[in-house]
Amino acid sequence: MLSRFHSISYIIFFNFIICFSIFAVELPSENNWLNLNKATKVYTDTNKQFSNLNVLLSGQVDFVSKQQATFIFSDINHWIKVSLTNTQTVNKTSYLTLGHQTIKFLKAYLHNDQNTQIIAELNSASSYSSRPISDPILILPITLKAGETKVLYLHYQMIGHVSLNLKLFSKISMMEYQKKSEVKNNLLLGFLVAILMMVGLHGILNKNLTYLYYAGLMISFIFLICDLSAYNLKYFWPDGGIVAEKSVAIIFSFIPIFHLLFIRQFLNLKTYHKKLNIVYKTFILINICLLILTPWVTLLTISLFLGTLVIPVLCYTVYWSFNQPLIAIKTFSISLFFHVVLINFLTLFAVATGNYILPIELPDLLKVAYTLEAIFFAISLAIQNKALNEQSIFLLKKQTEENKAMSNLEYEFNLSAQSNRIMKQQAIEKKIMLANLSHELRTPLTVMQIEIETLQNDFSDDISATHKSLSNKVEDLTTLISDLSQISQSDIVSLEFSFEKVKLADFFKAIDKELKIFVISNKLIWNSNIEINDREHSILDAAKIRQLLLNLVNNSVKYTDQPGKVELNVLIENTMLYISISDTSPGVPHDQMKRIFDCFYRLEDSRSRNTGGSGLGLSICENIVYAHKGEISAQESDLGGLTILIKLPFTCNETDLLRI
Question: What is the model's pLDDT at position 212?
């Protein structure tokens, strides 16, 4: 009887071991990893009855498969169990990942009939150094002896209470997974930081609220991805504490605020959809209030509830914005569509189903969703900015054309006014010239008329003197008419010039002798200084230059007091021929020096009549100089009188001189 009882007990125990071994998961071999979702059993501790494993094992607990579990948004605890076995002949360590790098509460046990081992005990305030393995990925080492089987129990509470996604890695496969995860996270963060820098800089330079709100949203995205990757815990607050505990809730509060602000500003709802603008403002204010309360009160459940309520608003915004004519708004509606599908619907679906169906872990889903949204938002901003630039360029061109038209009108008006002034000035000058001409003609004619009447009435005591006076007046009139003829010809570019190659030394030597005789005969002192060598030649009209110098010296002789001095200076410097005629006092007032080249202009009319001349000599001189492409000017003389300075190009060719 007793032996039969032992036999039955042995059979029952043996079958139990076999069944237990059948459902146990074998540790992965080298280079492999296992997904434990199908082997995972879940229990939801709604009333928080089981605070530790001993209490759990002593109670009546029904674990169900992950497919059958219900995950709800409430402050509850979860238990997970999975049987693990090491069928090899040596001790083996595998590495368990949970699918989440931060967790609100976790206590991990390895249990069999002989003992219970606590392999991890963490919460949201734990430091980075308290992790079983120092890595941003939350890794639990699982060590089993040869042939040993144990049950892994995980007692946890997640933010949002989503399910864990358990994976078991060998050492080599774990290292590969770490590298891939690090590269993936760094690429995402680097991409988002690059977008943030460009958009933020553009917003600061242009003081555009749309770009600033987008920059705030990007910063929130970056901190969220850092938190999902546990980079915040590793680099920003490695000691954990209250900052680490509240950081996720604060980040999740900032994201909807900047997201709604950005949508409202980008679509300009204040102008184009006032009712929708009021709805967005309401949600923004509620989220701001939650953000203010977050450091003191846990309101994550309310935040998730608000995220659910805003889904219909976002769906309507997608519909409304997609029907707008602008391409930037249509692209923006696509980004909103991705937000609704990936972040709202799929996230809620993953939470409700324990993320058993989706092939991607929930943190990775959020990373991809926020990155895609950032990309589409950036594209929308770029398209909008391009459209604004094109509009600005169009308006600028239009404004430029209008300014140009106004400038042309103003130019034409000013030109017309200037032409009128010139015409008035020319009319005045013409009247003055005619008056001067009339005066110059009337004076000798009056004298001649008087002298003729004297002869006719036999009133003249000296008939020969009267004849001589008449002859002088006729000569004066002839000279005046000749000068007028030259002036008129030079003004209409018909004064004849005969340019030829002239040896300057010989020319000025001959003219020097002629001028010297003329000056000395008028009881004045002559002085000349000609610095020209025998090799210098120039193309000019020798007769006209001779006339020029004779006119200038004749003026000096007429208007220089005796005993006086007249001086000629000639030199070549920097391809220019300089000629100056200087005399002693009296001089010419400085303010009248430019006018002495005007027709009929005299400083003292009575003196001019006494000295003779038509008043046209300097005007003729000016025209001769201009015909030689030269310059003529008057200035005070070092001798006390007047200096006439002439500059002529002595290397020019005949064609240039004829092109007057």
Answer: 87
What CA–CA distances, in Å, run from 97 to 111, 128, 162, 166? 18, 16, 15, 6
Residue 440 corresponds to which amino acid? E
644/657 Cα distance (integer angstroms): 22
Q: How many of the other CB atoms lie within 10 Å of CB of 636?
A: 15
The single-letter code of the amino acid at 13 is F
C-alpha separations of 463 from 447, 456, 466, 467, 619 in Å: 15, 11, 5, 6, 37
Retrieve residue 201's tokens. 């800089």
CA distances, 542 to each of 282, 300, 510, 575 (Å): 98, 107, 11, 19
**20-174, which class in CATH?**
mainly beta
CATH of domain 493-658: 3.30.565.10
Cα diameter, the chain: 198
In one letter, which amino acid is 347? T
Q: Which residue has the tokens 């002529």?
A: 648
Q: Are 42 and 166 in contact, with CB atoms under 8 Å apart? A: no
Residue 649: φ, ψ to 5°: -75, 120
- Least confident range from 240-254, 418-432, 508-522: namely 418-432
Helix 241-266 to helix 362-456 angle (10° resolution) is 50
User: Tens digits of per-residue pLDDT, 119-154?
Assistant: 999 988 889 889 999 899 999 999 999 999 999 999
For 302, which DSSP code? Answer: H
Question: Token pair of 285, please?
Answer: 């204010």
Residues 6+ apart with CB under 8 A from 138: 97, 98, 100, 101, 102, 103, 122, 131, 230
Report whether pLDDT(660) > 80: no
Q: For residues 133 and 22, give the distance between their C-alpha atoms in angstroms, rounded to a whole number.
A: 30
User: According to the model, what pLDDT value does residue 74 have?
Assistant: 59
